[in-house]
Predict the 3D structure of the following.
Amino acid sequence: METWMLLGIPLIVAIVVIAMINSLIGKKNQVNFAFASIDAQLKKRYDLVPNLVAACEKYMGYEEKVLKDLTETRTKILNGGDDEKVALEGVLSAQLRSVFAVAENYPQLKAVDNFVILERSLNEVEEQLAASRRAFNAAVTVYNNAVEMFPTNIVASLLGYKLKTLFEIPPEERQPVKVWR
């Protein structure tokens, strides 16, 4: 009987530790998968930006700086790492809103089919991005809970797992939309 207990207890401990390791790895991979989903939506958005700039350039000559800034931000994001992408996302979102706000002053631009299609496409991508961000934040929350809660926090610490950052909107996007000028 003692032999079974001497062999059984370490075996049970080993099985529990392996289960915790596998659980943490699964949660980490889910976070990576969710971020990849955001990345795919962002790629769609980045691919639409040059088309939007090209459609607007003809009509928005006086607004050249708005379009130039949008193009520069897109280039920085494409050449940057994941952290830089996340940091510049708020900037790009604000610049896109600015382009569409300025476009309101150009009725002839708003009548161009290409612009209307691009505007709709960007709106669709933004909705998909919002859904991807929610999925990412849910995966990060589950992962972070596992990294912080006992007993998986011990295993996470041994594996070198750190807390992940939620995908949050920048403070300027939290402000209410101004309807009146």
